[in-house]
């Protein structure tokens, strides 16, 4: 079985470029985590519950809404402060996108 030189060169370029595609997401996650470190306890809970669902193509508003609602229903976050906590967490989560 012979592999042509152009095919081999193309495969090498693709293999070399793959690690570069994850660098921006790692940097964005680091910035988001740094932002989250400054949040209130309730906002940190929302951030922690949401960060795994945040990524390209995710509906951030829906992710934060559903995770916040779940935390309120579990009694982990007070209903009265949920909206402001979710907004603060969302501001950090945007950086991870």
SSE layout and pairings?
Layout: H1 5-36, H2 41-50, H3 60-73, H4 79-93
Helix pairs in contact: 1-4, 2-3, 2-4, 3-4
How would you sum up the global shape?
A: globular
Largest sheet: none
**Order of SSEs:** HHHH
Strand content: under 5%
Q: Helical percent range?
A: over 70%
Q: Can you give the mean pLDDT?
A: 81
Radius of gyration, in angstroms, nearest whole number: 19 Å
Low-confidence residue ranges: 7-12, 20-24
- What is the terminal-to-terminal distance? 43 Å
Write down the domain tally: 1
**Secondary structure tally, helices:** 4
What is the total tally of β strands?
0
| Helix-strand makeup class | mainly alpha
Short account of what is shown:
By secondary structure, this protein is mostly helical. It has helices spanning 5-36, 41-50, 60-73, 79-93. 73% of the residues lie in helices and 0% in strands.
List keywords for this structure.
97 residues; mainly alpha; globular
Describe the structure.
- The chain has 97 residues and is mostly helical.
- It has one domain (5-96).
- It is 73% helix and 0% strand.
- The chain is built from four helices and no strands.
- α1 packs antiparallel against α4, α2 crosses α4 (79-93) and α3 runs antiparallel to α4.
- The radius of gyration is 19 Å and the shape is globular.
């Amino acid at each position: 079985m012979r592999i042509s030189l152009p095919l081999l060169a193309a495969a090498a370029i693709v293999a070399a470029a793959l690690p570069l595609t994850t660098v921006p997401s790692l940097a964005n996650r680091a910035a988001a985590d740094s932002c989250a470190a400054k949040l209130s306890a309730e906002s940190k809970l929302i951030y922690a519950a949401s960060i795994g669902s945040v990524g390209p193509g995710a509906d951030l508003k829906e992710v934060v809404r559903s995770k916040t609602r779940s935390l309120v229903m579990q009694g982990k976050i007070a209903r009265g402060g949920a909206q402001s906590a979710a907004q603060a967490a969302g501001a950090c989560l945007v950086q991870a996108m």
